[in-house]
Amino acid sequence: MKDLQITAIIKVYQYDELNADDQKLIKTAMEATARSYAPYSHFSVGAAALLNNGTIVTGTNQENAAYPSGLCAERTTLFYANSQYPDQAVKALAVAAKTEKGFIQTPIPPCGACRQVILETEKRYGQPIRILLYGKECIYEVKSISDLLPLSFDASAMEE
């Protein structure tokens, strides 16, 4: 038996430490939360994706009384980007969330389903997606979904 050690490096920033482009992307994700449809959880999430051509697309969580029928902001954003701009890779993805009391203090990570979709988007375009997770206390920067999804499942697992 041996141990397999997996490590991830996640940088932690204050908002004013970010460059202007990253601040703009986070601000766009924050603004998107206003378009969330979250009548059940009252937890509004917005995401903004920066494409290689400089276009920014946004999405929000969309809830449904039949909970499994809803969709997270990250997937809404990436599916929109992939369908409307199929020739443009996603360079960065910012995510912000708020409750009825305001924006959350600490960043929230993407759920498992969103992590899988981010992984597939990275594989589709052959480049990592920088992920910026906003919280009032700090922002997490993740260089690639592989830092949040070690031992991931992708198409290569089916090729053996």
Structure in words:
Helix content is 24%, strand content 24%. The chain has 160 residues and is α+β, with helices and mostly antiparallel strands.
- H-E order: EHEEHEEHEE
Tertiary shape: globular
Assembly form of the protein: single chain
Largest sheet: 7 strands, mixed
- First-last Cα distance: 24 Å
Report the C-alpha radius of gyration, rounded: 16 Å
Structural class: alpha+beta
**Counted beta strands:** 7
Proportion in β-strands: 15-25%
In DSSP terms (H or I, runs of 4 or more residues), the helix count works out at 3
The helicity comes to: 10-25%
Q: Detail the poorly predicted runs.
A: none
Mean pLDDT equals: 96
Task: Kindly summarize this structure in a few lines.
The protein is an alpha+beta fold.
Itemize the secondary structure elements and their pairings.
Blueprint: E1 10-13, H1 20-32, E2 44-51, E3 56-60, H2 73-84, E4 90-99, E5 102-103, H3 112-125, E6 130-134, E7 139-142
Parallel strand pairs: 4-6
Antiparallel strand pairs: 1-7, 2-3, 2-4, 4-5, 6-7
